[in-house]
Amino acid sequence: MHGGALMAARQAVGQYLVYAKGWQRALIAAGVIAGGALLLVAGIVTGHLVMAVVGGIVLLGVGNACVQVIRARRRRRGEAGDG
User: Taking a C-beta distance cutoff of 8 angstroms, is the pair 6, 62 a contact?
Assistant: First the structure.
């Protein structure tokens, strides 16, 4: 169940990141990473193992997707500017 939720979240965030402007992509990525970290810490503090695991998955999965999309857009923009 968590894997399906992660895939849906990555797809939804990915769609926004593809069409967003640079500052919007950075803001979305920062929000997702901060949210995952907050979920992880809240799960550890309150003792909810599932919440901590979901926070870790968000940090690793969706946060990594945000970073990869931003890097890919920067690479494409850099290659297009060289020619």
Answer: yes
pLDDT tens, residue by residue, 50-81 = 888 888 888 887 777 777 777 877 777 766 54
CA torsion through residues 25, 9, 43, 64, sign:
negative
Structure tokens at 48: 């909810």
Q: Could you identify the residue written with the tokens 């920062």?
A: 30
- Contact in structure between 54 and 38 (CB atoms under 8 Å): no
Torsion of CA 37, 41, 43, 44, to 10 degrees: 140
| Residue that has been written with the tokens 């920067």 in this structure | 74
12 neighbors 62 (Cβ within 8 angstroms): no
Q: How far apart are alpha carbons 29 and 63 in whole angstroms?
A: 7
